[in-house]
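Dig into this one:

. . .
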Amino acid sequence: MKIRMPLEEAERIALKYAEMLAPKCERVEIAGSIRRRKAEVGDIEMVAKPLPAFDLFGSPNGYHDLSIPLPAVKDGQRYKQYTLPEGIHLDLFIVLPPAQWGVIFALRTGGAEFSRKLVTAKRYGGYLPSAYVVRDGAVHRVDTGEIIPTPEEIDFFNLCELGWIKPEERN
């Protein structure tokens, strides 16, 4: 059974794990219902962009491993899930190319219906202009496949002609 806990308690736990990941990250942020300031939280969602890793000779050889010292329930390259000792799940979404921070952070902040609309074309009732598609965590032009840079959420929102929407107003 999925537990729910007060926002303040979930946020305290999330901050602890964000601090643990920070030395390996270019950026790590708390997303999901904590970021939307929901009174009760069912899981912790975080988005992280790992720092590049280098071999002994200074050549790039990928990115830092963002595992935490717990057994992972799911242990993929871009998504990891942990059951924390505090009794709540931590879902870690890892931004690796071609994914863009702005897309992943917006989608993982949610809410679920808002995120669905962000990736759905306007002609089908969503927010995304029909010239684009979201694939692999990035916005691509339908005609050329070109990736449209969205380094921040506002860049993704502007592409969708939404302007800024506060996380607590996203349902």
